[in-house]
Every structure is written in structure tokens, then in C-alpha cells.
Amino acid sequence: MKLQTAGIHHVTAFVGDAQRNVDFYAGILGLRLVKKTINFDQPEVYHLYFGDEQGNPGTIITFFPWPQGQKGKIGGGQVGITTYAVPPGSLPFWMERLAAYGVAYEKTARFSEEFLSFADFDGLQLEIVERADGPQSTWSFAGVPADKAIKGFGGAVLYSAAPAKTAAVLEGSLGMTRAGEQDGFIRFHTTGHLGNVIDMPAEPVPFGAGGTGTVHHIAWRTKDDQEQLIWRGELQQQGYHPTTVQPRQYFNAIYFRESGGILFEIATDPPGFAIDEEPGSLGEKLMLPEWYEPYRGQIERNLAPIEVRQLEVKKP
Length: 316
Known about the structure:
Elements: E1 8-15, H1 18-28, E2 32-39, E3 42-51, E4 60-65, E5 78-86, H2 91-100, E6 105-110, E7 113-119, E8 125-130, E9 152-159, H3 163-173, E10 177-182, E11 185-189, E12 197-201, E13 214-222, H4 225-237, E14 246-247, E15 252-257, E16 263-268, H5 296-302
């Protein structure tokens, strides 16, 4: 049986100030902060997760805020643009909302679709597209009604230093379908309803540099631990060097760097974000893995306080 990912599980990026990160993704984009935890390797750094009401796979963007971090450069070997999907007819609402908060945007087009392209406070490149696929959001916050809210990922634009090799991974290893090529972009589809459209420039993109305002890795969905191990074995047979399984509390992960330079992760759908908090109170408390609980006081003192808050409109 050929393995096929349903699409994006999550995207993880580096940013600067944690509160500004919360203000943008919750206060402006209206996403839910579903988990407030730490970088397991650097407990002095937050790991923040934003997504739909339950933090379902295909909706989650995660951040490592590091105020002292060096500014990165978006380029080859990275996710260049993260795409969000909203219901059909919602772009005028988002044009008005972005303008009201002083977020500059422009209209772009690919494959006969219109996108609103903009950047967050750290320069991370984002876009919004209308798509009928995927369940409608049930989360409403900060003046974003559920019928206009971001549903989750529409997909991503991958910047590869070796597009032919990256395409071979997307099709041959991850089981995506090559849907077409137009205006210098190649499009791939996955089997899911969110995070299911992957675009990539057909020509190589010069390498970027990691740092704030760049994506660290993109994670692809696998249904469970058993399938993940099958995937790991197949990647080894194909000549890649996936890591051992890394427990990430809310999913398990393996990582490998594909030949175009992009760090890929394959992450399990379960167990999800409600294993240590009630669904109604996700993201309200700093959650730590059990091995860090004895150090909670010290860890909390080293983290700047953050809050989910509604922002004042900058423009009438």
C-alpha cells in the first residue's frame, strides 16, 4: 500500500516577541491559542500553538518566540509562504480587517485563485485564499465571526533549492498528486480537506537563512504511530535519514531534510491537545511535560507574561 499524507499537520516558525506573536495570530487573525508550553530543548523559550477551536491537524501554526534571535532571510530550503483558507466570499472581510489593523496586503494570483498576501509582525509571509474545502470554523474571537474565520491551512508554498528533487519526495514519498504547472509554479494535492494544496516555484530558489520571521519546518500528517514507523522505514530505504521517533507530548514526530533543503516532519494526528487540559480551557495555563514540573517556578520566572487580548483598531 502506498502511503499518502492527508496534508499539513502543522507549521513551526521562529519569531521575536511572544506578546506581539499572540497579538497577531489571536488578536488580528482570530486564531485560538490552543497550547502554551515550552521548547523541550530550551525551557526558557515558549512554544506557542495557534489553530482552530480544538487544535485539529491541518490548522496548527506553532512558534518559538526568541526576542534576542537574529533576523532570518526567507529563501530556498524553507516554507516561503503559509496559506490560510477562509470560506468563499470572505476576502472582503479580511481586506477590511487587515487594513483596520494597519497590516499591509496585496492581491496576488496563482492557478486562477486570488490571494491576500501579507506578513506578520516578524516578516513571516502569509496569505489568505477562499476555499470551499474543509469544515467551517466553530471559533469566534476579537470580532472575527465563525462564518468568516480562518478554517485552517489552505496549504503552503515551498521554496526549494532543487525543485525536481523536492517534487520527487512530495509525489514518491508523501503520496501527493501533481495537479499541474502554471506561471512558474507546480501544484500538488493531498488527500485531506485542509492543508491540502502545495505550490512550489518550478525554478530553484537561492538558499535563505534561518532566524526570526522564517519557518523552521513543515509537518505532514500520519494517522498513528504504526503508520509513522512504516513511513520511517520507507524513508530509510529511499536513502533519507529520518530521526528516531521524538515524543512531542501532543503528537509523535520524525524529521528528515529533503534534497531541496526543507526540513520535513511526519507527525501523528493523535493524541491531540486535550490530553492535559479541558477542551474549553485550552491555552490558558502554561503546560509542562512531567519531567519539567519540578522546575515550574523557575521556568515561569524566566518567561515573559503573555495574554490573549482584543486589540484596538488602528484605522477607522
